[in-house]
Amino acid sequence: MFSKDKWSEIIESLTSNWFRTILTSFGVLWGIFILVILLAAGKGLENGVKQGFGGIATNSMFMWAQTPAKPYKGLPKGRRYNFKISDVAAIKQNVPNLKYVSPRNQLGGFGGANNVVRGLKSGAFNVYGDYPEVIKQEPMDITSGRFVNYSDIEQNRKVAILGAGVINDMYDPGEEVIGSYIKINGVNFMVIGTYKKKGNNGNPEENQKQIYVPFTAFSQAFNMGDTVGWMSITAEDGSSITDLKTQIFDVIKSRHTIHPEDDRAIGNFDLFQEFSKINGLFIALKAVAYFVGILVLLSGIIGISNIMLIVVKERTNEIGVRRALGATPWDIRGQILMESIFLTIISGMSGIALATGVIALVNMQLDGVDTSEMMFANPSVDLGVVIIALSILIISGLLAGLIPAQNAIKIQPVDALRTE
């Protein structure tokens, strides 16, 4: 129950020596400030790193054919084989909980020879033969026109979608891109769309120098037949591609007569596994932030506990009078604990408010900066952190006042009244 007299006594006790109260509360303020700032900085780093993935489907893996390391059923080790387009249908049919299975073929690469010509201009670019689903696995902003669709796949249309880097190299400023033609390894393709990718994952400039064409037109134009260079496979939400990839490998091994225990015949990059490691790193950073923040806060709590011991000593006569007038040990204990908790919460909330102001200033500075190529973005703390901080403050206040409160109730009324 609210007691005006009790709260007036708490305020009077804490304000009787302003300088001492402020110095004592600063330790708690600084501890909470450090805790919130560390958590916000960790969140900003996490946002920046995840932003670098550019919205890519992280529950994915990439798979390509290598040479078998073991002989099997009369076939020698070290032989060469290729994935086939029929493998895609087999994987979809035999492995559950897969969202996308996208075959891909590729021309060109970093440092390759010029493979694209337009008029008097030429350049070396990555050219990918893809299915429409790839835009959901590697999200990109279509800045004009459209992306590959299934009509393009079914009709083997020789159409292309160009990255911003390709346009800068192959077109003059202001020149119309949509509807123009480029020649890829001597084959004409009509441009139907342009895109731009964001994020700092990999080489941002190189990510814009890519050309996408329909998988079927690619295979027909460059004599690939039913060969698949590699696949991008994404699991359904709630399933892990890491758990499913063994089943995928088993399908490929069975179809291409590869030894079931040959782990070198199929190359893969498990993006989900790598992304999980990054998430684990940020969990560890958050734990370190809590550890350091709580240690700093602990020093402030010790300071409050010491001051409350001094306050109890100074109020020995007052406590003796109250005990003589019938105050119970719980009344005395509750009064000391309330003073400790009140001082701790006020100090801690001031630290939270100060940290919030600093975070707001940092975000104001970042608002005018393009953070897409940075490893730090939008530092913040959520409501859960504030609730946790308040819980820490309440528990800390109880701990800080516990020993002084116990000392207070041990004072005998007669002894207290005799104290000068």
From TrEMBL:
One of its GO terms (molecular function) is transmembrane transporter activity. It is a multi-pass membrane protein. Keywords: Cell membrane, Membrane, Transmembrane, Transmembrane helix. Residues 291-413 form the ABC3 transporter permease C-terminal domain. Its main location: membrane. GO terms for cellular component: plasma membrane. Pfam families: FtsX, MacB_PCD. Belongs to the ABC-4 integral membrane protein family. This is ABC transporter permease.
